[in-house]
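Hey, resending since the last one bounced:
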Amino acid sequence: MRRCITLTIAIVALAFGVASISATDISMKLSGKGAVNETTIKAGQPVSIDIIIENDTIFTGFTMGFKLTSPDLSEIVHVADTNGGLNEAGDIKGYNGWHDQSIWDLNGVFVRETDWDGKLPDTIGFGGLSVKSKYTAHKAERKLSFDVMVPEVGVLVIDSAFFPPGGKWLYSAPARIGPSLSPAWGGPYKFEVVK
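The structure tokens again:
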């Protein structure tokens, strides 16, 4: 009996240990003409809002969403790109294996434009599944971005968001690796928009 209890405690401790070290960290950075510094955007200039991901385990699926809001701005412009992107307008791009089907091999990264019209708040979701491939560990790098232009001065806030239909932030590991996890999120991010 004592052995059974010890084994149960060891399994529970191991499961919690795997969950605590098997994580994905997500942060945001600015790049492009409109990026004054890490927290400041120049009004009227295109800026890329980069989603930086660091991963330390294997995953076979993911979902995550973002909401853009402002206490004083009513709209932004999604900068279209005719060279292509992950969505029809081309303002959402993938990088380092998230731009094609090399990692998320079941049709690449899915983009769910729940409310992506430039009238704040805007909400967007992402997801992907790997059937034959795997999303493996890597240091922090840009995986996704969206290109916007903020026409007026103010504050742009980006935070995590639930998006329909399933929309919970989740990174799913194969059963032999461990449980599905919610990634660590460094937000909300507040970007000051200046002249």
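The chain has one domain: 23-194.

Sorry for the duplicate.
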